[in-house]
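User: Can you help me understand a structure? I only have the sequence.
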Amino acid sequence: MEPVDVSVVHFESADSTLLEGDLLVPADATGSAVVCHPHPLYGGSRQDAVVAALSRAFVGAGRRVLRFDFRGTGGSGGTHDDGVAERDDLRAALEEVRVGDGPVTIAGYSFGADIALSVDHPSIDRWLVVAPPLAIVATEMLVAPSAEEPVTVITGAHDQFNPPEQLRPKIESWTNTELHVIDAADHFFAGAHRQVSDIATAALAS
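Assistant: Let's start by predicting it. Here is the structure, written out as tokens:
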């Protein structure tokens, strides 16, 4: 893998809440990505292992990557807002990471997956989400399911919160969406982080 420059960055959400993230920039980056972490009230942060796996995939694909802490988490200010103001946090992260008019892939895991699926922007070229509970934001607030850009969904065969047999009928009407199920994994993907990264890498190359 080519050398990667890693720096801590700070940026503001729409209500001036100061957020913190890690910016990973590989040499000759050709695009950008934002990665959203799982639920902060249950230990989720930008240091999560699935977030790291997604970040590796994006860096390997030559993307600038911003993985950040939602408000009230880690080095970010403010307080948790049950997925409401967090959508503004993601929009701010998108503006922070993108270069000019370049494309940005929006990614997220669990809580972060639902937030990712509910945010739209003309620069988005793909959504790539892992284990979306589809319960954090109202269904009518999800924008990715009807977008023209591709949506890649990765989940575990033994997910405790939205198992594949429940997830499939929820997304079967989504436009341009592909589902990948990791056989040995549950919602937390212990021992399956490499598979998450490999699926993401293949999706980005398609």
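Now, to help you interpret it: The mean pLDDT is 96. The chain has five helices and eight strands. Let me know which part you'd like to focus on.
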